[in-house]
Structure formats: C-alpha cells, structure tokens
Amino acid sequence: MNLGTIWDRFIQVYDTAASGSPISSGHFRGRVTTHKVWQKWTGTEAPDYIVYYDYDLMGRVKREIHEIPMLKRFKHHLFEMTYLYDAISGKVREMIYNEGKKDEFRHRFEYDAMGNLKQVWTSRDGKHWTLESALKYYPDGKLMRREIRPKDLIANSTINPIYNLCSLVGANNHTIFMTLCCTFSFINPILY
C-alpha cells in the first residue's frame, strides 16, 4: 500500500468564488461555491472534475457549471445546468442543460394544486415538448399511478404502487405477487 497517494479527494470552497470560476458573483453567503474532485491525488495535479454553483436571492441553486479540465483541448469542457423555480411554491419548474448549444436539453415539471408532481416534459429546443411521465394521486396525496411516456403506444409502461397496512409503498406492478403472498395489502384495482 502506497501511503503517498490519496484516492478520491475533494475540496469545497464556501462564500466566495474560487479562482478560475466562470461565476464571479452571486448570493454565496454560507454556501458551497465550488466543489473540486480528484480521483487520484498526489498534490500536483489539476482536479479531474469541478462544479461551480450560483444561487438566487432565496438561496436556491440557479445555475451550476460542471468543468472537466481533461476536455479543454476539445473546447467542450464546460457543461451548464440552469434551474427555474416557481415564484410561489419554490419548486423547480424547469431544468435547462447547455442552453443555446447543440446538445441543449430541457426538463419541465408541472404540479397539481396540492404541490404534487403531475407531469414531466422534455425538449431539445424549448419549443417542441414531449410528455415523458404523468402521475396520478389519491385524494390523500399518495401516488396512485405513474405512466411513463403515456402518449407513446410502443414504449408505454405503467408503475402502480401498492400500499400496505402502514401506508408504506409495499410494491409496484413488477412485484405484485410477492406483496400479495408476504403482506396483507389493500390493493387498488389495476386496469390495463
């Protein structure tokens, strides 16, 4: 064992932007601004992976930039994730990966009146959206059904959680028979 080598070392910087950060100012007070990771560290190498954080007035991450220094020679070493929040609930409304670039990708989230996630949409340009998942809930707020790609007849998949006597998720439709044999469960009729 070589004690001169440390594996998986990381450093976190708080309150101020680290040197070389693409984010120069923000609402950093008491928050992580930079996270640096070395897979193998001997004391002289540049980090293998760096994440820079930017915050909004409420203290939520509004932007994070991932840097992989090894990819600098290909001029594709910075990857940006932007978060948009609902002004009232504070829940994430949209996540945007590399906005304005060729590999741009977006996730949009819609919530019901109780604040439960209702639908998840994806887009490559912010104009044309695809419904990826639809969720339905019981009146008490527990998840009743999750439909994955409900509009796509070829790749349609459904997850039906089953709750046991303690109101904990005991299974989904893949483990229904095990749940029936092992626990006393109240089962909602599952329609296919």
Report on the structure:
It is a single chain. This protein has 192 residues and is mainly beta. The chain folds into two domains: 154 residues; 33 residues, no CATH class. 4% of the residues lie in helices and 45% in strands. It has one helix and 14 strands, in the order βββββββββββββαβ. The strands form two sheets. Strands 1-2-3-4-5-6-7-8-9-10-11 form an eleven-stranded antiparallel beta sheet, with no helix packed on it. The protein has a three-stranded antiparallel beta sheet with strand order 13-12-14. Strand 12 and strand 13 form a beta hairpin. The longest helix has 7 residues.
Tags for this model:
three-stranded antiparallel β-sheet; eleven-stranded antiparallel β-sheet; 4% helix; 14 strands; 192 residues; elongated; mainly beta
Task: Describe the SSE topology.
Elements: E1 6-14, E2 32-41, E3 49-55, E4 61-67, E5 78-85, E6 92-97, E7 105-111, E8 117-123, E9 129-137, E10 143-148, E11 157-159, E12 162-164, E13 169-171, H1 176-182, E14 185-186
Antiparallel strand pairs: 1-2, 2-3, 3-4, 4-5, 5-6, 6-7, 7-8, 8-9, 9-10, 10-11, 12-13, 12-14
Short description:
The chain is mainly β and 192 residues long.
Largest sheet: 11 strands, antiparallel
State the total count of DSSP E strands.
14
Class from helix and strand fractions: mainly beta
* Gyration radius over CA: 22 Å
Order of helices and strands: EEEEEEEEEEEEEHE
- Spatial shape: elongated
Discrete helix count: 1
Low-confidence stretches: 173-192
Give the strand content. over 45%
Number of domains: 2
Helix content: under 10%
Q: In what order do the strands lie side by side in the largest sheet?
A: 1-2-3-4-5-6-7-8-9-10-11
Q: What do the pLDDT scores average to?
A: 77
What is the distance, rounded to the nearest whole angstrom, between the alpha carbons of the first and last residues?
58 Å
